[in-house]
Each structure stands twice: as C-alpha cells, then as structure tokens.
Write a structure and sequence with these properties.
Elements lengths: L2 E4 L5 E4 L2 H6 L9 E4 L3 E5 L9 E5 L11 H22 L3 E5 L9 E7 L13 H11 L3 H18 L8
Antiparallel strand pairs: 1-2, 3-4, 4-5, 5-7, 6-7
Helix pairs in contact: 2-4
C-alpha cells in the first residue's frame, strides 16, 4: 500500500514502506546514514527535525521484537547501547525516550527520542511525545535548527564510525 510521507525538510515522498526505502538507499535520510551494518541502519528521523532523534531500523522487513534472529538480538542491544552513549557524550543528551510499536505501517524500528528543556511545556511523560513531534515538524524546520540537527548527525557519525560488534 503506497502512502505519502512528509519529510523533515517539508518535502514528501510516496512509498510502500518508508523503512525499506531508507534502509535500501532509495531515500536518503536527513543528513545521511549515521551507521550501517548488514542488519541495521541508523539515521536521523526523516520527519522530525530534533537534534539527536535517532531511528534504529532493521534492514530485514519484519514487525515484531520476537522475530529478531539471535545475531540481530545481540547487535540490536549493542547498537542501542552505543548510540545512547554517543548521544550522552557527544550531544549532551541526559534523557531519552525509547519506543517502537508493532502496530505500524513501517517495519521494525526503534525511536530514540531525546528529551530537551523546551519539551517540558508539552509535559514530561510518554503522552507528551506526539505534541513534541508535531511541534518540531511544524515549527522547527528552519535553516538555523537544521544546522543544529546536521551537526548532531555528524557528531553521531563520528562516534559510530569505528563501532564493531564483538560477540563473546
């Protein structure tokens, strides 16, 4: 089922599955790929211009956590740990909300949404995320903010460039 997706830069694209389009390279994520392995693709969320908002997407098309292979499970947790560490060290992000859902039109992916001081006006709970994201899409797509977002992407790329999964 093809659907129209609004991107962070205000443009839109029509795709069957946004995650498949991003992980295959059909669509370039905002600022480029932060990290890529044979199983996963890490990128800035293409719809919401918030510095450090990262998507960890599987390359393989599936929907549920229990569908991860043993190899993917280990890599998934290792990537979450590494990304979060780089968010803290390089971007100074103290708090992150993590979420994924199995009732989605995209395939398996995890959102890592930083919590910034400006977001407190929307509340301090998971219910505040939707208004925060909508506010960012509608009001933060400015040249100045996009410079900040791109700087965050570049810093995360730098932190992830030598990352290697070491299975023990």
């Amino acid at each position: 089922m093809t659907r129209q997706i609004t991107l962070a830069d205000g443009g839109s694209v029509e795709v069957d599955c946004l995650s498949c389009a991003l992980t295959s390279g059909l669509i370039a994520p905002t600022g480029g790929v932060i990290y890529e392995s044979s199983n996963f693709n890490v990128h800035q969320d293409v719809a919401y211009p918030i510095r450090g908002l990262v998507i960890l997407a599987s390359k393989r098309h599936f929907y549920c956590m229990d569908e991860l292979t043993s190899e993917e499970q280990f890599e998934y947790i290792s990537l979450i740990h590494k990304i979060r560490n780089e968010q803290r060290i390089r971007l100074g992000i103290d708090k992150v909300y993590y979420f994924y859902n199995e009732d989605t039109t995209h395939h398996f992916h995890l959102w890592m949404v930083p919590r910034y001081e400006w977001m407190k006006k929307f509340g301090n709970s998971v219910e505040s995320l939707r208004p925060v994201l909508l506010h960012a899409r509608k009001h933060m797509n400015t040249e100045d903010n996009m410079e900040i977002v791109f700087d965050g992407i570049n810093q995360l790329k730098e932190g992830m460039k030598d990352f290697v999964i070491n299975a023990k």
